[in-house]
Amino acid sequence: MSPTASARQAASVSAPAAARQAEGDDALPDVTLADGSADAGAGVRITLSLTPQPPVAFAKTKVRVRVEAGGSPVRLEAGRISFEMTMPMGDHRYSLVPGADGWQEAEVILPRCMSGKLRWYATVEGTVGGEPRTARFRLDLAPPGRAPTP
């Protein structure tokens, strides 16, 4: 392996997951202004919904997750959602609890980065039918004090 390839491989191993994804984050479903869905493999689809849209920094945001297998709602066992930026912003992991109409929910508060960056990454994880399932999404926070505008 060449020194350049070796350095690239070492960098990709040590970089946070969000930082590695940031290069191609346009491929991730954007849930800033609308619900988004992602394929989690084996016919499982995960939908993420945030209220308000866009979510506001330092304000409560209601997170709703719905999982379907073969087009029918299923429960995401041990469901959780975590949020990260490309730089460390603390621990933002939440358990999902049952909600109405097959949704699972959490209430979250995300801070605004002092650098002014607003991009966050959400990872939904859990198991369906005993198999682990994961989906990633991207979102941009609105600054605090600014009314959400679509």
> Distance between the terminal alpha carbons, to the nearest Å?
49 Å
Helix content: 10-25%
Low-confidence stretches: 1-16, 18-22
SSE class: mainly beta
Mean pLDDT reading: 85
| CATH architectural name | Sandwich
| Order of helix and strand elements from N to C terminus | HHEEEEEEEEEE
Q: What percentage of amino acids are in beta strands?
A: 35-45%
Rg value: 16 Å
What's the total helix number? 2
Tally of DSSP β-strands: 10
The CATH topology comes to Immunoglobulin-like
Give the overall shape: globular
Sheet with the most strands, sense and barrel status:
6 strands, antiparallel
The CATH superfamily appears as: Immunoglobulins
Describe the structure.
- There is one protein chain.
- The chain starts with a helix and ends in a 10-residue tail after the last strand.
- 12% of the residues lie in helices and 43% in strands.
- The protein has 2 helices and 10 strands.
- The protein is globular, with a radius of gyration of 16 Å.
- Strands 1, 2, 3, 4, 7 and 8 form a 6-stranded antiparallel sheet that branches. The chain has a 4-stranded antiparallel sheet with strand order 6-5-9-10, with no helix packed on it.
- The protein has a single domain, classed as Sandwich (Immunoglobulin-like), CATH 2.60.40.
- By secondary structure, the protein is mainly β.
- A hairpin with a 5-residue loop joins β7 and β8 (104-109).
- Mean pLDDT is 85; it is low at 1-16 and 18-22.
